[in-house]
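Study this fold:
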Amino acid sequence: MKNIIKISLMSACIGLGLSSCQSDLTSLNDDPKHPAILPSENLLATAMYQSSYYIDNPSVNFNNYRFFTQQWAETQYPDETQYNLVTRNQPRNHFNRMYVYSINNLRQAKVNLKNEVETDDIRTNKLATLEIEEIFIWENLVDTYGDVPYSEAFKPDEILTPKYDDAKTIYLDLIKRINDAIVAIKPAAKGYAPPVGATNSGDLVYSGDMTKWKKFANSIKLRLGMNLADVDPVLAKTTVESAIAAGVISSDDDAYKFKYDGGTFSNPVFDNLVASNRNDFLPSELVVNTMKTLSDPRMDIWFTKVGGVYKGGVFGELNDPYTNFSQLSSYFRSATAASNLLSYAEVAFLKAEAAARNYSAGGTAVDLYASAITESMRENGVSVANTTAYLAANPYNAVNWKQSIGVQAWLAMFNKGFASWNFTRRLDSPTLVNPPKSNIASVPYRMPYSDQEYVLNGANVKAAASKIGGDKATTKLFWDKF
């Protein structure tokens, strides 16, 4: 971990073009135009970009969330849809992006913020911003791997080989930390807001609007609480209800969306589907056939037709030529499309699920289910008339609410791989069938640990693997009980 953190600091400097991060024995060559100590807003911006881009990245070299939920199929090679997670080192790549390029920058930002001139309220809000962003990434790490280095991580001068903390213990601490951050926010003051005359700041999502950061924080808390529903229903209920009562994301304008300019930074789906000039990915047969059965109007927006019909790729198989199948439409191919990592639609489905579990969620399960679908349709440009017809044809099923909400949330989270994976694991719907040529015994429930950890932190990662029941993709997380 110490070596990784050292690499991180240099990588952050290189990424920002700050050559003066390299130090010499004296200060004679210091360049005042390129500070050796990075402003906290630069570190925040780097962390936000790295985490957003790589959580949303569909590359076969990274998280593979879209394959874990079987929403995308492959054409050129089926290795990733056959759940080969070793050849390309996806576990290592995602682990490093979240720890090294994301959380490490936020930790350093907190240190640097202490020495920056600022009013008390703005400093408090900036610290809350850094804390909420860090918690957001920790949740991704825990929900991807399970037990991970936490309490002893990022202490390279004290601990070279950090222990792996119990995942539920981390969850409990994240809930405490997010509660503290929410209370600390000063809504009347700004956070990382753009300077006078500027349009951008280190906060590349909310531009220092602390009201939106508070809604985002409560929405993270809602997600954490819902994941606890089957393993700790009492804590889940209190966590979820308090988050909703305090105010979660309530419109698309509140959503956590990292926006790309299409020049310096481009959407990761664009990079993999257009800029790379690769024809590797198709909507899966499972997605297309499910949407056909439900007469889902989003198909007309999301996919192309082949021979006048929609035809999905066979998951886990080497498909016929790319042109023989429906393809992802131009809707997903924009360089400036935002990575919508905690959307209003997701929050709406979480509230519907909360109501189905008899939590106080601000409405009935029937009404919240309809609201969630309506928001997904609106988000994707479906007309009111078509939305009304879809709801009439696919009403809420209270008897089998997990399937009812699960299938609809899975569809609504198409191209939001991590969010979709949480729903499919928690609700076990739709049913995902392990492909015949799979490299593992079932569909993935977690990402195996980074292979580098077995070299740099061997004793601790082996102990963690033993504790959770084996470092396998088929080992369920602590909250995935059914």
Summary: Residues 2-22+37-269+343-436+449-468 form a domain with the Serine Threonine Protein Phosphatase 5, Tetratricopeptide repeat fold (CATH 1.25.40.390).
